[in-house]
Amino acid sequence: xxxxxxxxxxxxxxxxxxxxxxxxxxxxxxxxxxxxxxxxxxxxxxxxxxxxxxxxxxxxxxxxxxxxxxxxxxxxxxxxxxxxxxxxxxxxxxxxxxxxxxxxxxxxxxxxxxxxxxxxxxxxxxxxxxxxxxxxxxxxxxxxxxxxxxxxxxxxxxxxxxxxxxxxxxxxxxxxxxxxxxxxxxxxxxxxxxxxxxxxxxxxxxxxxxxxxxxxxxxxxxxxxxxxxxxxxxxxxxxxxxxxxxxxxxxxxxxxxxxxxxxxxxxxxxxxxxxx
Amino acid sequence: xxxxxxxxxxxxxxxxxxxxxxxxxxxxxxxxxxxxxxxxxxxxxxxxxxxxxxxxxxxxxxx
Lengths: 276, 63
Known about the structure:
The complex is a heterodimer.
Chain A: E1 2-5, E2 9-16, H1 24-32, E3 37-45, H2 61-71, E4 78-84, E5 94-100, E6 111-119, H3 123-126, H4 139-150, E7 160-165, E8 171-177, E9 180-187, E10 194-202, H5 207-221, E11 225-232, H6 242-248, E12 251-261, E13 265-274
Antiparallel strand pairs in A: 1-2, 3-5, 4-5, 6-10, 6-11, 7-8, 8-9, 9-10, 11-13, 12-13
Chain B: E1 6-18, H1 33-42, E2 46-52, E3 57-62
Antiparallel strand pairs in B: 2-3
Protein backbone atom coordinates (compact mmCIF):
# COMPACT_ATOMS: atom_id res chain seq x y z
CA UNK A 1 0.00 0.00 0.00
CA UNK A 2 1.11 3.56 -0.61
CA UNK A 3 0.43 7.12 0.42
CA UNK A 4 1.54 10.22 -1.47
CA UNK A 5 1.21 13.66 0.08
CA UNK A 6 1.50 16.74 -2.13
CA UNK A 7 0.84 20.30 -0.91
CA UNK A 8 -2.76 20.17 -2.19
CA UNK A 9 -3.29 16.52 -3.09
CA UNK A 10 -3.30 13.17 -1.32
CA UNK A 11 -3.34 9.75 -2.92
CA UNK A 12 -3.83 6.66 -0.81
CA UNK A 13 -3.87 3.17 -2.26
CA UNK A 14 -4.43 0.07 -0.19
CA UNK A 15 -4.35 -3.53 -1.31
CA UNK A 16 -5.72 -5.60 1.55
CA UNK A 17 -9.20 -5.95 2.94
CA UNK A 18 -8.80 -2.49 4.41
CA UNK A 19 -11.38 0.18 5.05
CA UNK A 20 -9.81 2.85 2.90
CA UNK A 21 -12.83 5.12 2.67
CA UNK A 22 -12.78 5.62 6.41
CA UNK A 23 -9.73 7.83 5.86
CA UNK A 24 -11.87 10.39 4.02
CA UNK A 25 -13.21 12.28 7.03
CA UNK A 26 -9.94 12.39 9.02
CA UNK A 27 -8.06 13.53 5.90
CA UNK A 28 -10.54 16.35 5.27
CA UNK A 29 -10.46 17.35 8.95
CA UNK A 30 -6.66 17.32 9.07
CA UNK A 31 -6.46 19.37 5.87
CA UNK A 32 -8.70 21.97 7.50
CA UNK A 33 -6.08 22.45 10.23
CA UNK A 34 -3.67 23.74 7.58
CA UNK A 35 -6.30 25.93 5.91
CA UNK A 36 -7.33 23.61 3.09
CA UNK A 37 -10.79 22.54 1.97
CA UNK A 38 -11.70 19.56 -0.19
CA UNK A 39 -12.32 20.50 -3.83
CA UNK A 40 -12.21 17.14 -5.58
CA UNK A 41 -12.29 13.41 -5.00
CA UNK A 42 -11.62 10.39 -7.18
CA UNK A 43 -12.04 6.77 -6.11
CA UNK A 44 -11.12 3.81 -8.33
CA UNK A 45 -10.75 0.08 -8.01
CA UNK A 46 -10.92 -3.13 -10.01
CA UNK A 47 -13.15 -6.12 -9.36
CA UNK A 48 -12.82 -7.69 -5.93
CA UNK A 49 -11.22 -11.12 -6.02
CA UNK A 50 -12.75 -11.99 -2.64
CA UNK A 51 -15.92 -9.87 -2.37
CA UNK A 52 -17.16 -11.89 0.58
CA UNK A 53 -14.48 -10.63 2.94
CA UNK A 54 -14.86 -6.94 2.25
CA UNK A 55 -15.62 -4.98 5.41
CA UNK A 56 -18.03 -2.05 5.39
CA UNK A 57 -17.90 0.39 3.57
CA UNK A 58 -16.34 -1.86 0.93
CA UNK A 59 -19.00 -4.53 0.60
CA UNK A 60 -20.09 -3.41 -2.87
CA UNK A 61 -19.55 -0.46 -5.19
CA UNK A 62 -23.05 0.72 -4.35
CA UNK A 63 -22.11 0.80 -0.65
CA UNK A 64 -18.86 2.55 -1.40
CA UNK A 65 -20.56 5.25 -3.46
CA UNK A 66 -23.21 5.68 -0.77
CA UNK A 67 -20.50 6.13 1.87
CA UNK A 68 -18.66 8.67 -0.28
CA UNK A 69 -21.86 10.58 -1.04
CA UNK A 70 -22.69 10.74 2.66
CA UNK A 71 -19.24 11.89 3.74
CA UNK A 72 -18.24 14.36 1.07
CA UNK A 73 -18.85 18.04 1.81
CA UNK A 74 -21.75 19.75 0.03
CA UNK A 75 -19.49 21.98 -2.07
CA UNK A 76 -18.60 18.94 -4.22
CA UNK A 77 -21.70 19.33 -6.35
CA UNK A 78 -20.63 17.50 -9.50
CA UNK A 79 -20.64 13.76 -8.84
CA UNK A 80 -20.61 10.62 -10.93
CA UNK A 81 -20.18 6.89 -10.36
CA UNK A 82 -19.83 4.31 -13.10
CA UNK A 83 -18.59 0.79 -13.72
CA UNK A 84 -16.58 0.30 -16.90
CA UNK A 85 -16.18 -3.08 -18.56
CA UNK A 86 -18.16 -5.85 -20.25
CA UNK A 87 -21.86 -6.14 -19.36
CA UNK A 88 -21.54 -9.84 -18.63
CA UNK A 89 -20.87 -10.86 -15.05
CA UNK A 90 -17.56 -12.38 -16.09
CA UNK A 91 -14.60 -10.23 -16.94
CA UNK A 92 -12.79 -7.45 -15.20
CA UNK A 93 -14.53 -4.20 -14.47
CA UNK A 94 -13.26 -0.82 -13.40
CA UNK A 95 -15.16 1.13 -10.75
CA UNK A 96 -14.87 4.90 -10.78
CA UNK A 97 -16.40 7.61 -8.61
CA UNK A 98 -15.49 11.25 -8.95
CA UNK A 99 -16.73 14.47 -7.46
CA UNK A 100 -15.62 18.06 -7.68
CA UNK A 101 -16.65 21.56 -6.75
CA UNK A 102 -17.54 24.48 -9.03
CA UNK A 103 -13.92 25.06 -10.02
CA UNK A 104 -13.68 21.46 -11.30
CA UNK A 105 -9.90 21.58 -11.37
CA UNK A 106 -9.55 18.06 -10.05
CA UNK A 107 -7.04 17.10 -12.65
CA UNK A 108 -4.30 19.26 -14.08
CA UNK A 109 -4.98 19.99 -17.75
CA UNK A 110 -2.06 18.06 -19.14
CA UNK A 111 -1.69 15.11 -16.80
CA UNK A 112 -2.49 11.42 -17.15
CA UNK A 113 -2.70 8.60 -14.65
CA UNK A 114 -2.18 4.98 -15.63
CA UNK A 115 -3.24 2.13 -13.36
CA UNK A 116 -2.20 -1.37 -14.43
CA UNK A 117 -3.48 -4.44 -12.60
CA UNK A 118 -1.98 -7.86 -13.34
CA UNK A 119 -3.08 -11.30 -12.15
CA UNK A 120 -1.83 -14.86 -12.63
CA UNK A 121 1.79 -13.75 -12.74
CA UNK A 122 4.46 -15.90 -14.31
CA UNK A 123 5.39 -18.32 -11.51
CA UNK A 124 9.14 -18.14 -12.03
CA UNK A 125 9.14 -14.35 -12.07
CA UNK A 126 6.79 -14.18 -9.06
CA UNK A 127 9.20 -16.31 -6.99
CA UNK A 128 11.64 -13.39 -7.02
CA UNK A 129 9.28 -11.62 -4.63
CA UNK A 130 9.67 -14.27 -1.91
CA UNK A 131 12.22 -13.70 0.82
CA UNK A 132 14.71 -16.40 1.77
CA UNK A 133 13.66 -18.20 4.94
CA UNK A 134 15.01 -16.56 8.10
CA UNK A 135 17.23 -14.15 6.13
CA UNK A 136 17.60 -11.89 9.20
CA UNK A 137 17.57 -8.80 7.01
CA UNK A 138 15.42 -5.69 7.07
CA UNK A 139 12.51 -5.18 4.69
CA UNK A 140 14.30 -2.15 3.23
CA UNK A 141 17.45 -4.12 2.50
CA UNK A 142 15.65 -7.05 0.83
CA UNK A 143 13.36 -4.61 -0.96
CA UNK A 144 16.35 -2.93 -2.61
CA UNK A 145 17.63 -6.30 -3.76
CA UNK A 146 14.21 -7.21 -5.22
CA UNK A 147 14.04 -3.87 -7.04
CA UNK A 148 17.32 -4.70 -8.81
CA UNK A 149 16.90 -8.44 -9.37
CA UNK A 150 13.38 -8.24 -10.78
CA UNK A 151 14.08 -5.45 -13.26
CA UNK A 152 11.84 -2.92 -11.53
CA UNK A 153 14.80 -0.56 -11.22
CA UNK A 154 15.01 -0.44 -15.03
CA UNK A 155 11.43 0.79 -15.39
CA UNK A 156 12.54 4.32 -14.50
CA UNK A 157 16.22 4.63 -13.67
CA UNK A 158 15.88 8.34 -12.91
CA UNK A 159 13.44 7.79 -10.06
CA UNK A 160 14.31 7.93 -6.38
CA UNK A 161 13.11 4.56 -5.10
CA UNK A 162 11.54 3.75 -1.74
CA UNK A 163 11.05 -0.02 -1.58
CA UNK A 164 10.14 -2.66 0.95
CA UNK A 165 9.99 -6.48 0.98
CA UNK A 166 7.44 -8.07 3.29
CA UNK A 167 7.96 -11.31 5.20
CA UNK A 168 7.59 -14.02 3.94
CA UNK A 169 6.73 -12.47 0.58
CA UNK A 170 5.32 -9.42 -1.13
CA UNK A 171 6.82 -6.16 -2.21
CA UNK A 172 5.95 -2.49 -2.45
CA UNK A 173 7.78 0.32 -4.17
CA UNK A 174 7.24 4.04 -4.53
CA UNK A 175 9.22 5.94 -7.13
CA UNK A 176 9.74 9.71 -7.07
CA UNK A 177 10.85 11.59 -10.18
CA UNK A 178 10.46 15.32 -9.66
CA UNK A 179 6.77 15.91 -9.03
CA UNK A 180 5.75 12.54 -10.46
CA UNK A 181 5.24 9.32 -8.58
CA UNK A 182 5.10 5.70 -9.64
CA UNK A 183 4.21 2.73 -7.49
CA UNK A 184 4.40 -1.05 -7.67
CA UNK A 185 2.71 -3.57 -5.37
CA UNK A 186 3.18 -7.31 -5.60
CA UNK A 187 1.57 -10.32 -3.97
CA UNK A 188 3.33 -13.34 -5.50
CA UNK A 189 1.49 -16.34 -3.99
CA UNK A 190 0.47 -18.87 -6.66
CA UNK A 191 -3.26 -19.02 -6.02
CA UNK A 192 -3.85 -15.28 -6.06
CA UNK A 193 -0.73 -13.70 -7.52
CA UNK A 194 -1.20 -10.05 -8.30
CA UNK A 195 0.87 -7.02 -9.19
CA UNK A 196 -0.02 -3.44 -9.88
CA UNK A 197 1.80 -0.53 -11.41
CA UNK A 198 0.68 3.07 -11.42
CA UNK A 199 2.31 6.22 -12.67
CA UNK A 200 1.49 9.78 -13.59
CA UNK A 201 2.84 12.02 -16.31
CA UNK A 202 2.03 14.67 -18.87
CA UNK A 203 0.13 14.03 -22.08
CA UNK A 204 2.92 16.00 -23.76
CA UNK A 205 5.43 13.30 -22.79
CA UNK A 206 6.97 11.18 -25.52
CA UNK A 207 4.29 8.54 -26.12
CA UNK A 208 6.78 5.98 -27.44
CA UNK A 209 8.80 6.29 -24.26
CA UNK A 210 5.63 5.81 -22.23
CA UNK A 211 4.76 2.66 -24.19
CA UNK A 212 8.28 1.31 -23.67
CA UNK A 213 7.80 1.88 -19.95
CA UNK A 214 4.59 -0.20 -20.05
CA UNK A 215 6.45 -2.96 -21.87
CA UNK A 216 9.13 -3.02 -19.19
CA UNK A 217 6.50 -3.31 -16.47
CA UNK A 218 4.69 -6.20 -18.14
CA UNK A 219 7.97 -8.04 -18.75
CA UNK A 220 8.73 -7.94 -15.02
CA UNK A 221 5.59 -9.99 -14.27
CA UNK A 222 4.40 -11.69 -17.50
CA UNK A 223 0.78 -11.91 -16.23
CA UNK A 224 -1.94 -14.05 -17.78
CA UNK A 225 -4.44 -11.24 -17.25
CA UNK A 226 -3.92 -7.53 -17.25
CA UNK A 227 -5.96 -4.35 -17.25
CA UNK A 228 -4.93 -0.80 -18.06
CA UNK A 229 -6.98 2.15 -16.85
CA UNK A 230 -5.84 5.47 -18.28
CA UNK A 231 -7.22 8.78 -17.06
CA UNK A 232 -6.55 11.66 -19.46
CA UNK A 233 -8.05 15.06 -20.15
CA UNK A 234 -11.19 14.55 -22.24
CA UNK A 235 -10.41 14.65 -25.94
CA UNK A 236 -6.84 13.52 -25.46
CA UNK A 237 -5.79 10.18 -26.92
CA UNK A 238 -2.63 9.50 -24.93
CA UNK A 239 -3.96 6.01 -24.15
CA UNK A 240 -3.84 5.05 -27.83
CA UNK A 241 -1.12 2.59 -28.65
CA UNK A 242 -1.42 0.69 -25.38
CA UNK A 243 -3.40 -2.16 -26.99
CA UNK A 244 -0.85 -2.54 -29.78
CA UNK A 245 1.94 -2.52 -27.22
CA UNK A 246 0.25 -5.21 -25.15
CA UNK A 247 -0.39 -7.30 -28.25
CA UNK A 248 3.32 -7.16 -29.05
CA UNK A 249 3.84 -8.84 -25.68
CA UNK A 250 1.40 -11.66 -26.47
CA UNK A 251 -1.66 -10.13 -24.82
CA UNK A 252 -5.07 -10.07 -26.51
CA UNK A 253 -7.50 -7.17 -26.00
CA UNK A 254 -10.68 -8.56 -24.39
CA UNK A 255 -12.65 -5.41 -23.74
CA UNK A 256 -12.43 -1.66 -23.87
CA UNK A 257 -14.69 0.96 -22.32
CA UNK A 258 -14.48 4.68 -21.76
CA UNK A 259 -16.41 7.25 -19.79
CA UNK A 260 -16.09 10.87 -18.80
CA UNK A 261 -16.04 11.99 -15.16
CA UNK A 262 -16.47 15.46 -13.68
CA UNK A 263 -13.15 17.06 -12.97
CA UNK A 264 -11.24 13.88 -13.73
CA UNK A 265 -11.33 13.75 -17.52
CA UNK A 266 -11.93 10.54 -19.44
CA UNK A 267 -11.13 7.10 -18.10
CA UNK A 268 -10.31 4.43 -20.69
CA UNK A 269 -10.34 0.89 -19.33
CA UNK A 270 -8.86 -1.97 -21.35
CA UNK A 271 -8.65 -5.62 -20.30
CA UNK A 272 -6.23 -8.11 -21.82
CA UNK A 273 -5.43 -11.77 -21.45
CA UNK A 274 -2.41 -13.74 -22.48
CA UNK A 275 -2.43 -15.75 -25.69
CA UNK A 276 -0.37 -18.44 -23.95
CA UNK B 1 -11.92 -16.60 1.28
CA UNK B 2 -8.84 -14.45 1.10
CA UNK B 3 -6.50 -16.74 3.00
CA UNK B 4 -3.80 -14.11 3.31
CA UNK B 5 -6.16 -11.26 4.06
CA UNK B 6 -5.09 -9.92 0.73
CA UNK B 7 -7.73 -8.61 -1.62
CA UNK B 8 -5.82 -8.06 -4.83
CA UNK B 9 -6.99 -5.08 -6.78
CA UNK B 10 -6.27 -1.99 -4.75
CA UNK B 11 -8.69 0.67 -3.75
CA UNK B 12 -7.37 4.10 -4.62
CA UNK B 13 -8.57 7.38 -3.18
CA UNK B 14 -7.33 10.71 -4.53
CA UNK B 15 -8.30 13.94 -2.81
CA UNK B 16 -7.72 17.48 -4.04
CA UNK B 17 -7.72 20.50 -1.78
CA UNK B 18 -7.70 24.23 -2.21
CA UNK B 19 -7.02 27.17 0.04
CA UNK B 20 -5.95 30.81 0.05
CA UNK B 21 -2.33 30.09 -0.73
CA UNK B 22 -1.79 26.38 -0.12
CA UNK B 23 1.65 26.17 -1.69
CA UNK B 24 3.09 28.94 0.47
CA UNK B 25 3.30 26.84 3.60
CA UNK B 26 3.63 23.52 1.79
CA UNK B 27 -0.04 22.77 2.48
CA UNK B 28 -0.72 19.16 3.41
CA UNK B 29 2.98 18.46 3.82
CA UNK B 30 2.76 20.46 7.03
CA UNK B 31 0.77 17.65 8.62
CA UNK B 32 3.06 15.96 11.11
CA UNK B 33 3.90 12.28 11.10
CA UNK B 34 1.78 11.59 14.17
CA UNK B 35 -1.30 12.96 12.37
CA UNK B 36 -0.59 10.84 9.31
CA UNK B 37 -0.10 7.71 11.40
CA UNK B 38 -3.35 8.39 13.21
CA UNK B 39 -5.23 8.67 9.90
CA UNK B 40 -3.59 5.50 8.62
CA UNK B 41 -4.64 3.72 11.80
CA UNK B 42 -8.27 4.20 10.75
CA UNK B 43 -7.58 2.21 7.58
CA UNK B 44 -5.47 -0.39 9.39
CA UNK B 45 -2.17 0.65 7.83
CA UNK B 46 1.23 1.62 9.20
CA UNK B 47 4.23 3.29 7.59
CA UNK B 48 7.13 0.92 6.88
CA UNK B 49 9.24 3.19 4.72
CA UNK B 50 9.18 6.85 3.72
CA UNK B 51 11.01 9.28 1.51
CA UNK B 52 10.30 12.75 0.16
CA UNK B 53 11.64 15.26 -2.32
CA UNK B 54 10.99 18.93 -3.07
CA UNK B 55 7.55 18.14 -4.50
CA UNK B 56 5.90 15.50 -2.33
CA UNK B 57 6.24 12.89 0.41
CA UNK B 58 5.88 9.19 -0.26
CA UNK B 59 5.08 6.44 2.23
CA UNK B 60 5.14 2.68 1.75
CA UNK B 61 2.48 1.13 3.98
CA UNK B 62 1.89 -2.27 5.47
CA UNK B 63 -1.51 -3.58 6.47
